[in-house]
Amino acid sequence: MTEREALAGLLARAFDDDPTMGWVFPVAAQRERDLRRLFAANLTHAAHHGWIDRAPAGGADAPGDRVGDAAGVALWLGPGAYPMSAWQALLSGHALLSLRIGILSLRRMRRLNAYAQMQHLRTIAGPHWYLHGIGVEPDRQRRGLGTTLLRIGVERADRDHLPCYLETARESTLPFYARFGFRVAIPGRLPPDGPPVFSLLRAAAVKRPAEANRPTTSAAPARD
After folding, report:
1. pLDDT, tens digit, 9 for 90 and up, residues 25-60
2. What does each C-alpha distance from 11 to 90, 176, 177, 213 come to in angstroms?
3. Is the pLDDT of residue 171 over 50?
4. Which of 20, 60, 96, 212 is the most exposed place for a label (fewest CB within 10 A)?
5. What is the domain partition of the chain in residue ranges?
6. Which of 3.30.565.10, 1.20.210.10, 3.90.1150.10, 3.40.630.30 is the CATH number of 3-211?
7. Are the C-beta atoms of residues 192 and 222 closer than 8 Å to each other?
8. Cα–Cα distances in angstroms (integers) from residue 2 to residues 6, 24, 171, in the given order
9. Angle, to 10 degrees, between the axis of helix 28-49 and the axis of helix 3-14?
């Protein structure tokens, strides 16, 4: 098993009971398979256009790097990596998903993507870091791994003096993100029968005078 396959499986298990993923992939018996395919494409895109942070199974305060060692993972897309171009969709594998998932799931995924892109661009149009996914193995949750992963990402954004954006379908996670400075920009619901979608934004760190002329990074190399 490759590292990408291992991390895709981790994310599939972490998102199995997510309201949005349950709506897109309503057949429970097929959901993990389809989520693995989706997250494998997401991982490929993040590897080329952002960062992949890992939390090791041992629970240390630094990301893990060994294949199969991760108990949590966060995918960040750098400035300019979203929305995805047609060429990026082909290279990452997103373009092929339409051939590998059911018709209902394909229709719902297209609706979700269109709605998410509209809300994303309504919330922020300039350079920013986009948390495209964060997940922890179900049996390792509530042990601080998610906190470790999110801290790594927002500290990177602070060094770049860039805002951060994310979406979540779980209202119960809003206090967690609020601890890191994220605020609800748009509370929405995918019409007419879709799940809730909260768009969250975190303001950029203020540059100190000595850093005012220092350029920000346009995109960081992935840790993979």
Report:
1. 999 999 999 999 999 999 999 999 999 999 998 754
2. 21, 19, 19, 39
3. yes
4. 212
5. 3-211
6. 3.40.630.30
7. no
8. 6, 26, 34
9. 130
Regarding pTM above 0.85, the answer is yes
217: its two tokens: 């990074």
The CA-to-CA distance between both ends of the chain, in Å, stands at 15
Q: Is 43 exposed, middle or buried (0-12, 13-18, 19+ CB in 10 A)?
A: buried
For residue 32, what are the contacts with CB-CB under 8 A and spacing of at least 6? 9, 12, 13, 16
Contact 139, 163 (CB under 8 A): no
Q: How far apart are CA 195 and CA 190, in angstroms?
A: 6
- Residue 88: its H or E element: helix 86-92
